[in-house]
Automatic annotation (TrEMBL):
The keyword Cell division does not apply. It comes from Sinorhizobium medicae (strain WSM419) (Ensifer medicae). The lineage of its organism: Bacteria, Pseudomonadati, Pseudomonadota, Alphaproteobacteria, Hyphomicrobiales. Pfam families: HTH_3, Peptidase_M78, ScfRs. Belongs to the short-chain fatty acyl-CoA assimilation regulator (ScfR) family. This is HTH cro/C1-type domain-containing protein.
């Protein structure tokens, strides 16, 4: 009979702490003394059948969770300590069982740290091989990280994923959210998965936007986020659970080369799914056409941010029911391009997006103001481009605000289908794909010499820019 005794003190303690109960409060609810509960939590007394049933009925606990072993956490720890670096540290598995059982969060942290160590070692090996092949002269900028692989893959294809769109529409309909999508998603998480959503103050979660604690079954959201971004974080969690098969099917199409790239790709698709859930395809397309693609109006109608509505405009390319093929680019004040996407892939060859004369750069001088204009490329192609700054999470007194700028564009032929069509009647701004690829002469904004033309041919004349050519 002794073999059937269940010692699950650390798990009972985690359940109590997750519910924010004192030992006295839990003991009273279970009909036992606080001292007896204390002995149970210290594994000095086993759980009786009667107490197991009481725990299950009072706190809706799965009995298998209390009776099972450390499960996958133990298996992952075994894999970590099988590493040659750690293989001689432990004489057996007993200590691993104790860690996985008594401190699952610590166990998960060890596994995550070891995973990061292996991936970093793989990166260093790749970098070492690159340096060796090129005689130690390769620049660090030439290395191709997993994030680069994911960005290139997403930018090179249309920003539309049919399986995710259909699954998100069906999920939205089943939630019947009315005017309270956030409340409907929270209710679904609690009812279907026993998962509660809680907003945490900055001092508790200073560096994270969102964290899912699988042991207490709570989703923590940072109070730094705006209500719109909090809604998106909840939608990401709901979509990751409810339509994970559609996300996995789309992820499989990319065939990323590393586990890190697959994780990044999975997150990008979950973010896409969140937008699809917050702004269902058919409803959003109809509203966009009625509002002539006014981003501000769409943001207000669907109770989302300007950035979220702008992103959604690039996704409207369902076969037989498409919208204006917008593309999008996000940059910071230093000119770093953070994100690019397009309804028909981002137009690298025809637009580029690196010209310093684009209004996305001027937007930082007038935060929050929307700028619209028509631009012309050197070969004659014209685009309508709209730009506006967006602010990141709420910054503290000692922090600098994270401010980026969004550019939304489409070919000038579609301008009259949008509310911004008046800008198409203005004189076009002459821009280029990037300074290194542009041969416009006399450009006041030129920041680099072109790679196709020699400089300094005439010592008797100088141009408006130090990089001018003849």
């Amino acid at each position: 009979m002794a073999e059937n005794k269940i010692f699950a003190g650390p798990r009972v303690r985690r359940i109590r702490n997750g519910l924010q109960l004192t030992q006295t409060a839990m003991a009273e609810a279970l009909g036992i003394s606080p001292s007896y509960l204390n002995l149970i939590e210290r594994n000095q007394r086993p759980l009786t059948v009667q107490l197991l049933l009481k725990l299950a009925s009072v706190y809706r606990i799965d009995l298998e969770e209390l009776q099972g072993e450390a499960g996958s956490g133990l298996a992952e720890l075994r894999e970590v300590f099988a590493d040659p670096l750690l293989a001689g540290e432990l004489p057996g598995d007993q200590e691993l069982v104790e860690v996985a059982e008594a401190a699952p969060n610590v166990s998960g942290g060890i596994v995550k740290l070891h995973r990061a160590y292996r991936e970093q070692a793989a990166r260093l090996r790749d970098l070492a091989a690159l340096l060796a092949d090129q005689g130690h002269m390769a620049a660090l900028a030439d290395t191709r990280l997993p994030m680069d692989e994911v960005r290139e893959a997403f930018e090179a294809r249309p920003n539309h994923f049919g399986r995710i769109e259909e699954a998100a529409e069906a999920l939205h309909e089943s939630l019947s959210p009315g005017d309270d999508l956030s409340g409907s998603m929270k209710a679904w998480l609690r009812k279907e998965h026993g998962l509660a959503v809680r907003t945490l103050p900055v001092h508790v979660m200073p560096t994270l936007r969102r964290r899912f604690d699988r042991h207490s079954m709570r989703l923590f959201i940072s109070e730094r986020l705006s209500p719109f971004d909090q809604l998106r974080e909840i939608a990401i969690e709901v979509a990751s659970i409810a339509i994970h098969e559609a996300i996995a099917a789309e992820l499989e199409q990319f065939r990323f080369s590393t586990a890190e790239a697959r994780r990044i790709g999975r997150f990008e698709l979950a973010r896409y799914a969140a937008h699809a859930l917050m702004m269902p395809y058919a409803a959003f397309l109809a509203a966009a056409q009625r509002a002539k693609y006014d981003v501000g109006v769409l943001a207000a109608r669907f109770q989302v941010s300007f950035e979220q509505a702008a992103n959604r405009l690039t996704m409207l390319q369902r076969p037989g029911s498409g919208g204006v093929p917008f593309f999008l680019m996000e940059v910071d004040s230093a000119g770093n391009r953070l994100r690019r996407a397009g309804a028909q892939a981002f137009p690298h060859a025809r637009f580029g997006g690196a010209c310093p004369k684009l209004n996305v750069q001027a937007a930082f001088a007038v935060p929050g103001q929307l700028l619209a204009e028509r631009v012309q490329m050197p070969e004659g192609a014209e685009f309508l481009v709209i730009a506006r700054t967006v602010d990141g999470p709420q910054a503290g007194f000692h922090e600098r605000v994270r401010r980026t700028a969004i550019l939304i564009g489409c070919e000038a032929a579609f301008a009259n289908e949008t509310v911004y069509g008046a800008a198409a009647g203005l004189p076009a701004i002459a821009v280029g794909p990037a300074c290194r690829l542009c041969e416009r002469q006399g450009c006041l904004a030129r920041a680099e010499p072109p790679i196709t033309r020699p400089l300094g041919l005439d010592e008797m004349a100088t141009g408006l820019s130090v990089f001018d050519f003849q």
